[in-house]
């Protein structure tokens, strides 16, 4: 490896450490706790190294949002697809698929994104920057859904409408878990989502 490549690899490595730390701060300490100093300490990098990659807090947190959709959710996508690999493409697939989709709304990427979305309400600069990243995050979540359902189910006429309905409904219900002390796996909405998915994907006749 040449000296230039080694420097580039070190730079990319430190950037990834910083972004992982930013997401962890958002999840554990919220937007208010995700200061550049807190991220620097968690990442274990120098102040100069952090500012080299991200000169401002806004740039850091917007990059963290991009990191959510390109790296962290990709891992969720792989795990979910592997768990569905042995499931048939018919109605039997629905229960496990809905359980896995619901679980993605309790992963760190979702809660980090929620912190940013909430902060963007009163931060015009962050709001503008996040508009692009929010679309990318939605696309990444859609890829997770496609991997869970599989190509046969994804070809159903009402699949796109079902995905949009599940996304908005699950996101809204998941927000309650910011303060609700109850197991997500027993949420009463699960049965409703499963019935709805079965009817939309596999209508009688």
Considering DSSP H and I runs of 4 or more, what fraction of the residues is helical? over 70%
Proportion of residues in β-strands: under 5%
Helix and strand string, N-terminal first?
A: HHHHHHHHHH
What overall geometry do the principal axes of the alpha carbons give? elongated
Number of strands: 0
Which spans of ≥5 residues are poorly predicted at pLDDT below 50? Answer: none
Q: Please, how many helices? A: 10
How large, in whole angstroms, is the Cα Rg? 19 Å
For the record, give the distance between the C-alpha atoms at the N and C termini, rounded to a whole number: 62 Å
Average pLDDT over all residues: 86
Structural class: mainly alpha
The main β sheet shows up as: none
For the structure shown, list the relevant keywords.
mainly alpha, elongated, 10 helices, 205 residues
Task: Please characterize this protein's 3D structure.
With 205 residues, the chain is mostly helical. The chain contains ten helices and no strands.
